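wait is this the right file?? whatever heres the structure
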């Protein structure tokens, strides 16, 4: 009998997305022609790390419980991942929405827009990339 890897999966998705989001953001800034290698950008990465930790922990908790719940009810990892991709966008959007409401800016020229886009790309890519094992134990006990 296989055991689910819901916790490991959610943790891998969260940590990897958290780690590569600043790199995706810097790539966006390079494409836009902005100099991202400066003391100011290094300070930004440090601050983004701190704020990213605070804002992403609730999303990770929701991702874990969603993964666990879906994994117990579906045996097709592709279906679970498709649902998690939609939920990942929602879970990532809520903190950025709250910050945007307080700052009043989510235009394509704002910081919030680009960092949100970077985080969503990272989350979506990680949800797709990591292997999710079906929760066979729960499925057998429900039958």
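ok assuming it is, sequence goes like this
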């Amino acid at each position: 009998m296989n055991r689910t890897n819901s916790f490991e999966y959610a943790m891998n998705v969260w940590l990897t997305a958290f780690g590569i989001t600043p790199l995706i953001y810097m790539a966006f800034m390079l494409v836009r022609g902005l100099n991202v290698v400066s003391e100011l950008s290094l300070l930004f990465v440090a601050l983004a790390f701190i704020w990213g930790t605070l804002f992403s922990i609730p999303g990770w908790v929701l991702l874990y419980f969603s993964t666990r719940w879906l994994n117990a009810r579906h045996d097709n990892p592709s279906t679970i991942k498709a649902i998690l991709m939609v939920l990942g966008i929602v879970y990532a959007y809520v903190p950025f929405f709250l910050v945007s409401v307080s700052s009043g800016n989510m235009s394509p020229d704002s910081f919030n827009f680009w960092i949100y886009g970077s985080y969503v790309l990272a989350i979506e890519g990680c949800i797709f990339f990591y292997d999710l094992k079906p929760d066979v134990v729960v499925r057998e006990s429900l039958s």
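The chain has a mean pLDDT of 80. so i think its the right one actually
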